[in-house]
Amino acid sequence: MKHVLLAAVLTTALASAHAESATYAIDPTHTFVSFEANHFGTSTLRGRFDRKEGSVALDKAGKSGKADITIDTTSVSTGVPALDTHLKSKDFFNAAEFGTAKFSADKFAFNGDKVSELTGTLTLLGKTQPVTLKASNFNCYTSPLLKREVCGGDFETTIARSSYGMPYGLNYGLPDNIRLLIQIEAIKQ
Fold first, then answer.
1. Chain mean position to CA 152
2. Mean per-residue pLDDT for 11-23?
3. What's the CATH architecture for 22-188?
4. Where are the domains of the chain?
5. What Cα–Cα distance (Å) separates residue 41 from each residue in 37, 93, 119, 120, 176?
6. Which residues pair with 107 in a beta bridge?
7. Is the pLDDT of residue 2 over 70?
């Protein structure tokens, strides 16, 4: 009898924990993927990707999650059309051959009830490397317009572009290290 009662309690606890897991669809109007690079020690070059999509599975009670974000590299935008064309070329994103980049995370770290970092991989130019995005902001709220929960935050990492096969300009002073920023909001489904 004790074993049956223990099994029932464990089943209920596991079902309750699983019930906390939810899927969130990325809101492209409130999600921004951008990058920053030092420009010959004088200023910061900034760019963004206008098209992105993905989803997040978040289990706040279990302190775990998964994220998948696909970035359309053909949508790179710096505000300078000639630079955008160069960034899409084989020198950089080679967007004709590699039209997307992908960030996938399977490990979420928490500080209390807030996501503090995501660990996973970034695939760019067909090469996959481990990355960790640190959160400088994270929150969930009920949207007054959507009447659904929205979770999101500001995340960032620094990558070495040469490790993805993008060495253009390193020999004359273009930086290898690129700051990658993802501001994300996702809507509970």
1. 11
2. 59
3. Beta Barrel (2.40)
4. 22-188
5. 10, 23, 30, 31, 13
6. 119
7. no
